[in-house]
């Protein structure tokens, strides 16, 4: 049997993000939770509200509005929303205000800005589009908010939820993806496909529509009007994850397939896809010169289940799939991630935190000598003392080679000694 949404709420404890909210509780900053639809933002707010109640906060102090629920449709008028909140605020105690999917309210910046300056308020907002933190809101809130970027389930969270053996769970994690509800539902291909299709279309259509509504007054932004084109670009980016790509190369691909289009238009459509948190761009980094390079970013897709859903079932690129998983795990662990270039070789990831670098290669199998030599080559060339790691699904090659650690990927993802 499948698991109901309220049971998912009880099961999927997003402790990493919950602890961040707890850390910022009662601080004079607006807490902004962002991430793709259905990654767990609303559940996180519910869990945090539960934490508040267990820590001596009365129900009357908690004011929550989810703009995806029909009963709050009238509050999509920012003036009515503000009055609604104002009428319900506590006079002598802190009011904890939660505004879920706030980007649906045209002019919500005025509400947020006004609430921020009121005494005894602690404000939390969520959004499914990075455009939430651009334009007027960014101007209003400069220095006055903290962003908590939420991702779908890590493999450790997924494993705890499904309670399978690691290898079987990892195979499902790669095939079906990491969205919380997918993790808990029956793994019937048609059922999962139907759910992912709904998520994908909602992100592509509804979130882009929200973006349009927010940029009505921005004459420099082109409108995203061709959904077919948007989906074509999304499929192309999904097919080349882990490979360097440029706006020009995407434009050339579309032109070669009979679609005449300008690079500026392609750039706007790619930007819409990244703002909706479907794709994450990664810049390239010159390790020797310690500087970012301007050309040929890589793009990674937030959920492999959605990727597998939208791509034709022709071949399975295991290497790029696990590279995608490693990228998002590094983000979860708080690293700033770039793609490394050293002379004429490439390092899959340069993970930076607090001025320290970690160099990471990702490969499915390195038992073949040619593969082993290729993965190790850049590390032998880089003459510094930062940590160098190869992550692989191949258990035979695990070990330490002149200070270079080869670690089994699943052990690394779960924090197991490896």
Note down, in words, how this protein is organized.
This protein has helices at 5-11, 15-23, 41-54, 78-88, 108-116, 135-141, 155-162, 166-176, 180-184, 189-214, 227-239, 247-256, 263-275, 304-310, 318-332, 369-381, 409-414; strands at residues 30-34, 62-66, 95-100, 121-127, 145-149, 279-286, 291-301, 336-342, 345-353, 356-363, 387-392, 399-401, 404-408. It has 418 residues and is an alpha/beta fold. Strand 2 (62-66), helix 4 and strand 3 form a beta-alpha-beta unit. The model is unreliable at 1-10 (pLDDT under 50).
SSE layout and pairings?
Blueprint: H1 5-11, H2 15-23, E1 30-34, H3 41-54, E2 62-66, H4 78-88, E3 95-100, H5 108-116, E4 121-127, H6 135-141, E5 145-149, H7 155-162, H8 166-176, H9 180-184, H10 189-214, H11 227-239, H12 247-256, H13 263-275, E6 279-286, E7 291-301, H14 304-310, H15 318-332, E8 336-342, E9 345-353, E10 356-363, H16 369-381, E11 387-392, E12 399-401, E13 404-408, H17 409-414
Parallel strand pairs: 1-4, 1-5, 2-3, 3-4, 6-8, 10-11, 11-13
Antiparallel strand pairs: 6-7, 8-9, 9-10, 12-13
Low-pLDDT stretches are 1-10
- N-to-C series of helices and strands: HHEHEHEHEHEHHHHHHHEEHHEEEHEEEH
Radius of gyration based on Cα positions: 23 Å
Number of H- or I-type helical stretches: 17
Shape: globular
What structural class should be given to the helix and strand makeup? Answer: alpha/beta
Give the tally of β-strands.
13
The main sheet comes to: 8 strands, mixed
Strand order of the largest sheet: 7-6-8-9-10-11-13-12
Please bin the fraction of helical residues. 40-55%
Kindly estimate the percentage of residues that lie in beta strands according to DSSP: 15-25%
Please report the distance between the alpha carbons of the first and last residues.
35 Å
Report the mean per-residue pLDDT as an integer.
90
């Amino acid at each position: 049997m499948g698991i109901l949404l309220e049971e998912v709420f009880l099961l999927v404890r997003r402790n990493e993000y919950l602890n961040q909210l707890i850390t910022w509780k009662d601080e004079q900053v607006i807490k902004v939770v962002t991430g793709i639809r259905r990654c767990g933002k609303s559940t996180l707010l519910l869990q945090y509200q539960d934490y508040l109640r267990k820590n001596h906060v009365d129900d009357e102090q908690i004011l929550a509005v989810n703009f995806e629920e029909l009963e709050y449709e009238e509050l999509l008028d920012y003036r009515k929303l503000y009055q609604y909140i104002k009428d319900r605020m506590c006079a002598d105690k802190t009011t904890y205000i939660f505004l879920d999917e706030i980007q649906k309210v045209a002019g919500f910046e005025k509400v947020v800005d006004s609430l921020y300056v009121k005494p005894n308020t602690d404000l939390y907002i969520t959004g499914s589009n990075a455009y939430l933190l651009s334009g007027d809101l960014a101007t209003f809130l400069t220095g006055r908010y903290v962003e908590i970027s939420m991702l779908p389930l890590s493999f450790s969270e997924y494993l705890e939820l499904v309670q399978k053996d690691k290898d079987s769970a990892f195979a499902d994690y790669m095939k079906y993806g990491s969205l919380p509800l997918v993790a808990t539902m029956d793994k019937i291909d048609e059922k999962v496909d139907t759910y992912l299709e709904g998520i994908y279309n909602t992100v592509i259509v509804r979130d882009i529509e929200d973006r349009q509504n927010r940029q009505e007054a921005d004459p420099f932004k082109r409108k995203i009007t061709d959904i077919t084109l948007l989906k074509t670009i999304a499929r192309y980016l999904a097919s080349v994850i882990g490979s360097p790509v440029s706006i020009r190369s995407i434009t050339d691909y579309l032109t070669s397939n009979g679609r005449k289009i300008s690079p500026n238009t392609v750039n706007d459509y790619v930007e819409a896809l990244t703002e909706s948190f479907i794709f994450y761009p990664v810049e390239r980094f010159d390790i020797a010169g310690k500087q970012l390079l301007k050309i040929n970013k890589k793009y990674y897709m937030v959920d492999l289940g959605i990727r597998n859903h939208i791509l034709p079932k022709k071949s399975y690129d295991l290497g790029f799939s696990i590279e995608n998983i490693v990228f998002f795990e590094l983000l979860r662990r708080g690293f700033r991630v770039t793609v490394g270039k050293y002379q004429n070789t490439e390092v899959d990831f340069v993970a930076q935190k607090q001025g320290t670098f970690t160099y990471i290669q990702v490969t499915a199998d390195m038992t073949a000598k040619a593969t082993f030599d290729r993965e190790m080559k850049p590390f032998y060339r880089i003459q510094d003392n930062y940590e160098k790691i190869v992550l692989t699904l191949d258990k035979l090659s695990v070990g330490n080679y002149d200070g270079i650690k080869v670690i089994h990927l699943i052990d690394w993802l779960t924090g197991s000694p490896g």
